[in-house]
Amino acid sequence: MSVPNLPPAVARCIRLAVLDLNGTTVVDGGAAERAIAEVLGTFGISGERLEAALAMSRRSAGLDRAELFERIFPDDAESARAASRAFAVAYDRMITAGCLSPVPGAEETIHVLREHGVKVCLATGFGRHTQNSVLDALGWMGLADLSLCSEDAGRGRPYPDMVLTAVLALDLDDVREVLVAGDTTADITSALRAGAGAAVGVLTGAQMAGELRAAGATAVVSSVADLPSLLWGREAIAAG
Q1: In the chain, where are the structural domains located?
Q2: What is the pLDDT of residue 239?
Q3: In this model, does residue 2 exceed pLDDT 70?
Q4: Which fold has domain 8-27+102-239?
Q5: Which residue, among 89, 71, 76, 78, has the nearest Cα to 35 in the 3D structure?
Q6: Which of 181, 126, 184, 186 minimizes the C-alpha distance to 160?
């Protein structure tokens, strides 16, 4: 698909890009869902109950994984917490086994953004340990200006907390100087609730263009690798 352009006034003011991890800058080949299925199996959930839980997981893409388990175990907080901890262990094992790969062009995009004076925050609905495992596995520790998970901010998506925490942590003057990019409607909703200047959907992860646009995306692009062109145009990037 062709890359749209943000309105020049919006593009000029962007000073921070908050980029989602899984599905936006990183892909895991379905490992997160396999880890969820593995954990739920240890709780005796199988058959139609398991399929329903996995369908819930897909619908809640982008949300804090702890919140997902709270939805699966709505009347059993202890099991929800135990399942969340078990998920982190199972997923960490899959990360160690090499399930992750960067979205093509993602790392280069982060470098280009920072070279153009745009700070970068990598944000996720995973816990802090899992986020660190992801960054370490990819050699991305220190790649961005900041990394955040929902527990750092208080609440995860679709709440605006991570975007607003990034604004405070990186000393921005105005949340309208923020571009948020993600592959889920939760990313878009979080951006809009925070008042971000741009909420960009990408098509490398969980949800389709129509779903992202319906959620209010400012723009939808094929990949996070399209962000520099979205901001400054292909000609400007080539000239730079």
Answers
A1: 8-27+102-239, 31-96
A2: 46
A3: no
A4: Rossmann fold (3.40.50)
A5: 89
A6: 186
